[in-house]
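A further point concerns the way the authors explain their paired sequence and structure data. Since the whole study asks how a given chain folds, the encoding of that fold should be made plain. A single example would do more here than another paragraph of explanation. An entry of this sort, consisting of the sequence and the corresponding backbone structure tokens, reads as follows:

_____
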Amino acid sequence: MTEFTLAERRALSRAVSQVENRAAGYEDLLSAAYANPEWATVIGITGPPGAGKSTLVDVLTAHWGADGSGIAVLAIDPSSPFSGGAVLGDRIRMEHSAALPNVFFRSLSARGNIGGLSEATCDLIALISARGFQRILVETVGAGQSDVEVTGLADCTLVVAVPGLGDSVQALKAGIMEIADVYAVNKSDLPDAAATRHQIEAMLSVAYVGRPGVDMPNRKHAPPPATSGVQALMRRHGDAWSESTIWRPPVVPVTARSGMGIDDLCAAVDQFIGWSRDSGRLRRKRELRIRDQVLRGLTRRLLQPYRGDGDTVPAILKPWVEAIVAGRVNPIEAVEALLSGGPFG
């Protein structure tokens, strides 16, 4: 069994804080972390508030940690739009796994970032991977229909649905319902759970052919229209008209509090990761994860001179803001002038 001593946990906690806060010396920590070529398997768990994500993460952690492998949990909490702080309370739901010697748990603030994640999450995945953990579970904030950033970070995206939070139209809306590699219908002991599961499966039937999980394509059907949405799904889950195997996201009924369906859900996640690795998609997804993190860093560095402190407008932008408010120029003209380096006016 992988066991982490109290001293190792404290050292990792300090390193996580250092990287999350971009404190002095964090660059050295990341330099060593990214030098490690062995990444942990990253499972993203997202879904609406009230879906039971934290309880589900707890039982998933206990299940995967039962074989002694190192499991880390990064739980992202929403932050105040004014102070940037957060009530980091997910630990109280980790009753099955938080005390296990091979489990590391950390709550993080989203720090105002949209998409349900902290900007430092990718760096923390690298840091934790380098410490010998085999799996990292990333729980997003209670996500809305457009909070889909986790799919670019995780090796497998698990979307948690729950009966009673919306009608069939809600289940068919684009956004978060399109990003899943695996669906879990939590609280499946409730009366409307079967209907919720059928609604999701009906939605999937519009875009996918074949059976849930890894399937051999049936090319008797006419290919779907070559829209951007269909092409994106094919890149993620396979082209039924040109590849030997495809993936259709399964919809797994679970009840986290009782443990019902957890074995099936973990098997579905592991099956997807295995198929993704065999098809070459896992490596491609990890390359895109690093690309996105580089872009985040570039964005932060390039925009830093233009960000005000609180409600202030920095001096470099003030004349442009005043001119736009007065109706003399528009934001597009201001952006073009700032990028070209020309003087105001």
